[in-house]
Amino acid sequence: MNAAEELVEDVDLLVVGGGKAGKTLAMDTARAGGRVVMVERGMIGGTCINVACIPTKTLVTSARLARRAGSAESLGLRLGTPRVDLELLRAHKDGVVSDMVELNHRQFLDSGMDFVLGTARFVAERTVEIHLNDGGRRVVRGTDVVINTGTTPHIAAIPGLAEAEPLTSESIMDLRRVPDRLLVLGGGYVGLEFAHMFAAFGSRVTVLERGPHLLRSEDRDIATALAEYLREDGVELIADVTVKEVVRERQTVRVLLEDGRTLTADDILAATGRDPVTRDLGLEAAGVRTDDRGFVRVDDRLATDAPHTWAVGDVAGSPQFTHVSLDDYRIVKANIAGGARSTAGRLVPWNLFTDPELARVGLTEEQARATGRPIRVAKLPVKAIPRARTLRDTRGLWKAVVDRDTEQILGAALLGPESAEVLSVVQTAMWAEMPFTRLRDGMIAHPTMAEGLNALFASWVD
């Protein structure tokens, strides 16, 4: 009997993939009395909880503590030289992850949804055949279908790289060892977080970036400042370089560069982007089209080319952040109910959890100037903020771009301690279309890092 001839189960909502957007919509719909099936291959709670945001930021906490302990004498304490205990480190990370997985699983069941562990493939419009992880098959058709299958680490087409079995942002989380020497391919957000983290754990880390500078989407002054701090913490940075070949020789990896240099390491981390999980979904049977990179094509309502079929999160080409996926959930929930909510004009914040951390929202200076509008630029060294001095953590640079005519904030990049938290204040002001003077003249508690916004918006450099 083929799938088309099998008994088809009809539900109100079918969610393929259990990431942030899909699982939240599935639980909401089920709690409201809808018949819901959510299919997930194995990561209960999605990528963020299992192999991305949560475990990485858990390890970032450990790395920051190790770095702080190493400089404790500046705070009047003698703690000795910190040492990484790999078993304890892995237990710390696994404990946080397992607690959140268990919480998610319980929430799934309590919501009343039908949570299915298995692999789904479309066999018709809004219809999937599910091969269950514990054996057997089911065929399910949804009145509405949401595709939420996410992405996986991309392995660049560099000769020998795949054969060298590189670490990825997911596999490096297994923490089987802390390599003495680690090469990182890619000077973007993922590569720099891991580079700084493993340098704190004791690895000798080298980052290879093919562009002229790190974080190519950021202004040069911000990227340069962060690069300086990474070097201070022992990370070697090589920019404007092309990898010619990667060779695995037993326990050593050799990387041959186009300029003739050869680098060796114990491990190599491929941090060169992510690929959408769409290849084996059978999307053509569902009438769903993808772009030339494999991401599901959606409009600004997150609707695909097929009726009543939506895509959310990374697989839809949305910015690859969990907070964006959560907003995708809000958009699709409204639109399934007959609304007209859109992704247009979303103000998306970005956070890089190095030490110091970098938080950005809105336009960079370069992007703002490209619009042709008259702008003002403010900069403030973090050492000018009293709270930073009490923390003995004065590395960093804050920057903001303002429309000269309207006095509204166009964007901000905050490099320094607790920047991710302070950024929310700036983002709120931008949502409210406040003039920058509200942050310049507003009463903000002392001593806090947010208080630095008073000084930032009085520190014009133009």
TrEMBL record:
Co-factor note (free text):
Binds 1 FAD per subunit.
InterPro entries recorded: FAD/NAD-bd_sf, FAD/NAD-binding_dom, FAD/NAD-linked_Rdtase_dimer_sf, Pyr_nuc-diS_OxRdtase, Pyr_nucl-diS_OxRdtase_dimer
Q: State the UniProt keywords alphabetically.
A: FAD, Flavoprotein, NAD, Nucleotide-binding, Oxidoreductase
Q: Does the keyword Nuclease apply?
A: no
Q: Which residue positions are annotated as catalytic? A: H446 (proton acceptor)
Q: Binding residues for FAD, per the UniProt record? A: K57, D314
Names of required cofactors: FAD
Q: Where is the Pyridine nucleotide-disulphide oxidoreductase dimerisation domain?
A: 348-453
Task: Please state every residue range assigned to the domain named FAD/NAD(P)-binding.
Answer: 12-326
GO molecular function terms attached to this record: flavin adenine dinucleotide binding; NAD(P)H dehydrogenase (quinone) activity
Q: Which Gene3D superfamilies match?
A: 3.30.390.30, FAD/NAD(P)-binding domain
- Fetch the SUPFAM superfamilies from UniProt: FAD/NAD(P)-binding domain, FAD/NAD-linked reductases, dimerisation (C-terminal) domain
Q: Where does NAD(+) bind?
A: G186, G187, G188, Y189, V190, G191, L192, E193, E209, G273
Disulfide bonds, paired cysteine numbers = C48-C53
Regarding protein family, the annotation reads: Belongs to the class-I pyridine nucleotide-disulfide oxidoreductase family.
Q: What is this protein called?
A: Mercuric reductase
